[in-house]
Structures are given as structure tokens and as C-alpha cells.
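Cont'd.
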Amino acid sequence: MQFKTALHALCDAQVEFVVIGGVSATLHGSARVTLDLDIFYSRVPANLKRVVAALAPFHPKPRDFPSGLPFIWDDATLRNSSVLTLQTDIGKIDLLAEVAGLGGWNDVNEQAITVTIFDRNIRTLDLPSLIASKRAAGRPKDLEALPELESILESEKQ
Amino acid sequence: MTPEQLKLAEDRLRNPAPGSRIEAAKKYGIDLTLIITQLRLTPTERAEILESASEAVEQMLGIARRRR
């Protein structure tokens, strides 16, 4: 997964987004490897157009989408899907309009912090919110991440 | 994280307090030394390592799929 290319594209297109999931965990100090980029984004119409423009060069298609069937990558597609799990030329990118346990864009953005990586300022969940989202998601892979994340949080307590 | 904060975090991870989340994670099987290594890095360094590691895993998965 070419995280740097994807994040540069989103930032340079002025997309309003927050990095969540495994990449957020990495930024907080997790040693686990993730193979996809989870992006939570604002659903205002102008931002949908920016997401579409940012990712279009990488030919996004839903993962497991039957080959040969047409897929239209536009803001209407985004507007009609609260979760899109995409395969792109640069790797797997998941676009989410809701985060379990955290709510909508305003709630999530309020709980995000700014981190500078790859020469860009990226918004990502703060560690307590990331832990809350993993716990609320409740899938085995999310729950398995909790002991490490909770250790990091505890180690950093003042 | 300041050097003092990092030192405190490392101390906590090397010597988990009884009953702490860190102790529970160690018992669960989490390699706490990997966390210490990660905390010493900048976010950019962490992201660069993740990118390299994910590409290596994807290559291995591709090789494994082709061999099936």
C-alpha cells in the first residue's frame, strides 16, 4: 500500500478527512502492520467532489467487484455509500462516512489531532478515540489491537 | 513526546505496574519492546516503516497466491 502517495493526493486536493484504523494506530506507536488506509471524510458536496478528484487517477473500484461490470467513480457514488472498500492502483483504501462509537464528521473531527507525516499535516483520531472506535467496531481484529493501544495510552499518561 | 515523557513511557513499558493495562498486554503476548521501538520514532518514520512492511506483506501474499 502506497500510503504516502494516497495521503499526498488527498491533502493536495484539499480533502477534509481524518485517518482512522490501522494507520492511525501506527501513528500513535502501534507495531502492527495494516494493508489498507481507512479514511473518514466530510460528506459536504464540495468535499465529495474533492475525494473523487483526488482518487480518480488511481482507478478506484470496490474490492471484489465483478470484472467487466462498469463502475462509475463520481460524487453520486460516494453520496450513496456510507462505506466504500476500494481497490486502487496504489492499494486498498476504505472510505467511511461513519465511525462506530464516535459518530459523524463533526464529532470525529473534534476528536482528531494533527500529525505531520510525509511533509503533510494529517488529521487522525486521538488515541482514546481510536481505542473507543476499535472497541465499538468489535470485530476480532479490532479487539486484538486493544491491548497494545491501551498499553501505549497508559505508558503516555502524565 | 519530550525526552522526559519518552523515558517515563519506556520505564512503564519495561517495568509494568502490577494490575496495569501494560502488564495485562504483556501477559496477553504483546511484545512491549516493539512499542518502545515505535515510540522512539517520529510519526513519519513510523509511517515509512508501515509502508515498507505492508508492501513486503503484499508481495509475500502475491507469491503465496501464485503458488496455490
